[in-house]
């Protein structure tokens, strides 16, 4: 019997390097999943071209055309539902999502953050780590809740912070880990191995 693939809807705002890593893993058969749509709030996001080159519906939804965040998220929900999305993936999506989206996909919205949460949430996480003098950094995949990078943690990966690191060099090293960690978390979801219990995510 063929096991159905988890249908992914990916939200982006920029170049889409994590999107590409996910597409590549799907194409290689490493993920029990498929990207069925990519949505960006920016028309110039290179990730839309990445999606189009793989025959994936690439959709621009301009947030400026909506009265506010809830109205925009309602349009996202409508589009994601039309594509029968099982799991929503935030991959460099530079918008704060609202309960409108989260309630439509409970424990089915994932994000990746370039720090070891709960340390250094929000913007410029790599800069925060360097300014704080952290010796270790990394990335975190988590389910999204109504807070800023406060949702239940799924997986984390560490990288050392080197003495001569810049924001750019640390970011590059973290990105390499992101491209492995995000697909791994998605695969756990696709296999039905993630159970959310309060603040914790149990992996079976």
For the termini, the CA-CA separation is 23 Å
- Give the low-confidence spans: none
Helix content: 25-40%
Strand-and-helix sequence, N→C?
A: EHEHEHEHEHEEHEE
- Structural category: alpha/beta
Note the overall shape: globular
**Biggest sheet character:** 7 strands, mixed
- Please compute the radius of gyration using only Cα atoms: 16 Å
CATH architecture classification of the largest domain:
3-Layer(aba) Sandwich
Question: Can you count the beta strands?
Answer: 9
What would the average pLDDT be, to the nearest integer? 97
Number of helices: 6
> What fold name goes in the CATH topology slot of the largest domain?
Rossmann fold
Output the strand order for the largest sheet: 3-2-1-4-5-6-7
CATH class of the largest domain: Alpha Beta
Number of domains: 2
What portion of the residues fall into strands of 2 or more residues?
25-35%
CATH homologous superfamily identity of the largest domain: Formyl transferase, N-terminal domain
Describe this structure as you would to a colleague:
Helix content is about 35%, strand content about 25%. By secondary structure, the chain is α/β, with parallel strands linked by helices. Helix 1 runs parallel beside helix 6. Helix 4 links the parallel strand 4 and strand 5. The protein folds into 2 domains: about 110 residues, Rossmann fold, CATH 3.40.50; about 90 residues, Rossmann fold (3-Layer(aba) Sandwich), CATH 3.40.50. The protein has a 7-stranded mixed sheet. A two-stranded antiparallel sheet has the order 8-9.
């Amino acid at each position: 019997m063929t096991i159905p693939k988890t249908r992914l809807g990916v939200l982006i705002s920029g170049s889409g390097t994590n999107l590409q890593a996910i597409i590549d893993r799907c194409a290689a058969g490493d993920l029990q999943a498929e990207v069925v749509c990519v949505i960006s709030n920016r028309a110039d996001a290179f990730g839309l071209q990445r999606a189009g080159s793989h025959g994936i519906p690439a959709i621009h939804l301009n947030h400026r055309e909506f009265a506010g965040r809830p109205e925009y998220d309602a349009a996202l929900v409508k589009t994601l539902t039309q594509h029968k999305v099982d799991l929503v993936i935030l991959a460099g999506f530079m918008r704060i999502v609202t309960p409108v989206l989260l309630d439509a996909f409970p424990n089915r919205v994932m994000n990746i953050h370039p720090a070891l949460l709960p340390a250094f949430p929000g913007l410029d996480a790599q800069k925060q780590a360097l300014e704080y003098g952290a010796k270790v950094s990394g990335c975190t995949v988590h389910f999204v809740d109504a807070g800023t990078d406060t949702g239940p943690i799924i997986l984390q990966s560490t990288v050392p912070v080197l003495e001569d690191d810049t924001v750019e060099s640390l970011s590059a090293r973290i990105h390499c880990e992101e491209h492995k960690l995000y697909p791994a978390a998605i695969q756990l979801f696709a296999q039905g191995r993630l159970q959310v219990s309060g603040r914790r995510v149990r992996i079976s």
